[in-house]
Design a protein that fits this description.
Structural class: mainly alpha
Strand content: under 5%
Order of helices and strands: HHHEHHHHHHHE
Strand order of the largest sheet: 1-2
Helix content: 40-55%
Shape: globular
Largest sheet: 2 strands, parallel
Number of strands: 2
Length: 241
């Protein structure tokens, strides 16, 4: 069973494949695979969860990983019909009126332009300027960038404008403060997921277009198609204020 889980993770992981990098979301993806694609019974899946928990408990106690990563893992009966908000990208200009932190607007913008979590800190102004078609949104980004040291600053730059910030966590502190304003999960991975599902749920788009636009392999696209049928997808609607 553990061999099966690891094979699934190796085939679908984005980035470095290391047991120390396993997160609850990786295990939940695997449980979705067992439930929706392999059609295993709930009791069987929960046995898998028990084995996985014991395995990571052993790794933690043996100091083979830094900390136990599955604190938030629940049984499959609690994982069904997860709700994901999609199709929020065109509403980004309207979000300027909600009092969000600039870091939140920047993050939403880059995700809406298709950047992956690993690319966020590398993006510079001239790379995206021509792709921002709303004048108000473009003016907002310009206002919240420091151009004193370069005409092409990083979107997530140091406060003095001298190069990019070091980690995503540096801007996520501000983003988390806005979590009660928007009906979106503002974690980077969940925003990326909702962006992808916004496209994959559109039956008019071809697989080739989706793989190119979303930077996905055919296997990863198949996984997200499975998610479309599994999750409860609802279109973005601004919260009443």
């Amino acid at each position: 069973m553990l061999f099966n889980f690891w094979n699934y993770h190796v085939a679908n992981a984005v980035g470095d494949i290391d047991i120390k990098n396993i997160k609850v979301s990786d295990v939940n993806d695997y449980l979705t695979q067992l439930d929706v694609h392999e059609h295993l019974k709930t009791r069987t899946i929960n046995k898998y969860i028990s084995y996985i928990r014991k395995y990571f408990t052993f790794l933690t106690q043996a100091h083979l990983i830094d900390s136990y990563p599955l604190v938030g893992l629940k049984g499959i009966s609690y994982q069904r019909r997860t709700t994901v908000v999609i199709n929020w990208m065109n509403d980004l200009p309207n979000m300027l009126n909600l009092g969000l932190h600039p870091e939140t607007i920047k993050l939403l913008l880059l995700i809406s332009l298709g950047y992956t979590p690993k690319e966020l800190l590398k993006v510079r102004w001239l790379e995206i300027a021509e792709h921002i078609h709303n004048s108000g949104l473009k003016a907002y980004i310009v206002k919240n960038l420091n151009f004193t040291k370069t005409p092409n600053p990083f979107i997530f730059q140091k406060q003095n404008g001298d190069g990019p910030i070091a980690t995503n966590e540096s801007f996520m502190r501000a983003v988390r403060l806005d979590r009660d304003i928007l009906p979106l999960d503002l974690s980077i991975s969940k925003l990326r997921q909702s962006y992808i599902l916004s496209y994959v749920s559109n039956s008019n788009l071809t697989d080739q277009y989706l793989m190119t636009r979303l930077k996905l392999s055919s296997k990863r696209l198949a996984y997200y198609k499975m998610c479309v049928s599994y999750y409860n997808l609802i279109s973005y609607k601004q919260k009443a204020r």
